[in-house]
Amino acid sequence: MFDILVTKIFFTIILSQLIHPLWASHIPNCAFQDTVSLIDIQPYIDGSYEYDGVWIPANMTATYTYEELGDGTRIPAPSHVRGCACKLKQCIQLCCAPEERLDETLKTCVKRKLMEYPRIDTYTENLTRSVSDVFKKYIPQQRMPCEDFKILNPNLDNDFNILYENGTVYHVAMEKYISHRDFCLTPYWLNATHLTLSPILCVQKSFL
Ligand SMILES: *[C@@H]1O[C@H](CO)[C@@H](O)[C@H](O)[C@H]1NC(C)=O
Ligand SMILES: *[C@@H]1O[C@H](CO)[C@@H](O)[C@H](O)[C@H]1NC(C)=O
Ligand SMILES: *[C@@H]1O[C@H](CO)[C@@H](O)[C@H](O)[C@H]1NC(C)=O
Ligand SMILES: *[C@@H]1O[C@H](CO)[C@@H](O)[C@H](O)[C@H]1NC(C)=O
Questions:
Q1: Total number of domains constituting the chain
Q2: What's in the GO CC field (predicted)?
């Protein structure tokens, strides 16, 4: 009797694991990278949510049973609601948690000296500069787009870059536009006294 029960429970778990990914809903016309987790946020009566000052209608939310890593790999996650926030306000990726910075040598996030989060310089199409708080100007998402990278140092000619308001970085020396999905920002010490918020440049992996 006990054996049967155990077997039954065992198969129920296996089955739900197999079926879940197939049943997992998603938001139409919304890439996973454009979503944010709405866990712990109370929905309004009509099923809409407010996230970081952005109103997300119910038809732009869905329940997910997975999360996606930077390289698109899906990993199972406890069932949670996500909303397509990046279709409503420009998103930008932060490499680490706010109290951390990316370490270029260790290739990982480390605790940073606690001081104000650096502000960000952005440019309009006609190159008008403005300095702003990244948490207000954008919807920040914490995600590393690659494992191997270099942090761009705006003081070096070779690294000089421009961040447009639409979240695209223009790398001047390479004459290359880099979409907000393909880089993240990290606090970075330019010198002993000056902390900036710098984009990383993903290093192409060699498949040779
Ligand atoms: C989603 O809901 C909003 C607000 O309720 C509505 O304006 C919009 O037309 C809906 N979009 C679709 C595709 O149903
Ligand atoms: C972002 O803005 C820049 C400058 O106007 C433009 O060249 C680039 O194509 C835009 N990128 C996207 C993804 O809209
Ligand atoms: C640049 O664009 C901004 C708004 O995007 C506008 O207010 C400003 O007048 C423009 N400057 C020039 C020199 O065209
Ligand atoms: C540190 O870098 C900033 C920005 O480039 C510069 O304004 C400042 O003078 C530098 N400070 C030192 C001590 O080199």
A1: 2
A2: plasma membrane
How many whole angstroms from 168 Cα to the centroid of ligand 2?
6
145 shares a domain with 184: yes
- The pTM of this model reads 0.81
Residue 124 beta carbon below 6 angstroms from any ligand 3 atom: yes
**Residue pLDDT, tens place only, 40-59:** 999 999 999 999 999 999 99
The token pair that represents 73 in the structure block = 């790999």
Q: Which atom of ligand 4 is nearest to the CA of 192?
A: 13
What residue owns the CA closest to ligand 1's atom 1? 59
- What's the 123 CA to ligand 2 centre distance in angstroms? 11
The span from the CA of 123 to the CA of 66, in Å, is: 36
Statement to judge: residues 178 and 134 lie in one domain = yes
pLDDT in tens, 99-128: 999 999 999 999 998 889 999 999 999 999
